[in-house]
């Protein structure tokens, strides 16, 4: 959650493109990120419980690499808090009609990337012709991002594997599928997240239930 001071500054002075995603897919993606990039050692079910409860700090405290960084720099700053999910999303959803806020769903990007690019360029006050949009669509495609060393963390991962800081195999950019959670969550876990989502008014507005 943003601090009140930073929130006022952010929403008053900057152009913001905010992307949200189905919380069940977000949970799965965040778990793999923490496990592969930050050394999270806990079980998936426990991670999901922490995600539902919005306990980002507890997730952080189970990330081996994050704790090593804090120990190395002797930081007095509290661990980062990446939750609660709905608190974060709601801050932007309620401001989606502000002229400097562009609210976007990941599912829409997957459904029609060229259309989303056109909307974003309009929001940014730019103009691209059809050829430029095609080039940008190809550049921003999932397959292109997966092999793009500027964003795929390959060098970071190789470095940490060489120093045996992470032991898990995989890629930073994994699958990117819509509803990919169905292949990773048990029916019981899906029901638990569905019940949690039923309690969130913004979930229905966003089309997630």
CATH level-3 fold name: Rossmann fold
- The beta-strand count equals 2
Instruction: State the CATH class.
Output: Alpha Beta
The chain-level structural class is: mainly alpha
Order of helices and strands: HEHHHHHEHHHHHHH
Describe the structure.
There is one protein chain. Residues 66-81 have low confidence and may be disordered. With 209 residues, the protein is mainly alpha-helical. It is built from 13 helices and two strands. It has helices at 4-13, 23-37, 44-53, 56-61, 64-73, 85-93, 106-111, 113-123, 130-139, 142-146, 154-162, 187-198, 201-205; strands at 16-20, 101-105. It has a single domain (19-97, 104-205), classed as Rossmann fold. It has a two-stranded parallel ribbon. Helices cover 56% and strands 5% of the residues. It starts with a helix and ends with a helix.
Task: Please describe the structure with a list of short key phrases separated by commas or semicolons.
13 helices, 56% helix, 209 residues, Rossmann fold, mainly alpha, sulfotransferase activity
In short:
The protein has 209 residues and is mainly α. Helices cover 56% and strands 5% of the residues. It comes from Ignelater luminosus.
Ordered list of secondary-structure elements with their pairings:
Blueprint: H1 4-13, E1 16-20, H2 23-37, H3 44-53, H4 56-61, H5 64-73, H6 85-93, E2 101-105, H7 106-111, H8 113-123, H9 130-139, H10 142-146, H11 154-162, H12 187-198, H13 201-205
Helix pairs in contact: 8-9
């Amino acid at each position: 959650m943003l601090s009140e001071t930073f929130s006022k500054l952010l929403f008053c002075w900057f152009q913001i493109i905010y992307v949200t995603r189905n919380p069940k897919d977000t949970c799965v993606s965040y778990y793999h990120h923490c496990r592969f990039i930050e050394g999270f050692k806990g079980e998936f079910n426990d991670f999901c419980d922490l995600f539902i409860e919005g306990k980002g700090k507890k997730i952080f405290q189970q990330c081996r690499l994050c704790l090593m960084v804090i120990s190395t720099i002797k930081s007095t700053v509290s661990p980062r808090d990446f939750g609660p999910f709905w608190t974060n999303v709601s801050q932007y959803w309620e401001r989606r009609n502000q002229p400097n806020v562009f609210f976007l769903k990941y599912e829409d990007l997957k459904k029609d990337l060229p259309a989303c690019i056109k909307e974003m360029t309009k929001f940014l006050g730019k103009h691209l012709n059809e050829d430029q949009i095609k080039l940008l669509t190809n550049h921003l495609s999932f397959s292109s991002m997966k092999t793009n060393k500027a964003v795929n963390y390959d060098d970071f991962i190789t470095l940490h594997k060489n120093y045996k800081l992470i032991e898990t195999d995989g890629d930073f950019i994994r699958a990117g599928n819509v509803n990919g959670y169905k292949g990773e969550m048990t029916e019981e876990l899906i029901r638990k997240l569905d019940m949690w989502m039923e309690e969130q008014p913004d979930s229905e507005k966003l089309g997630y239930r």
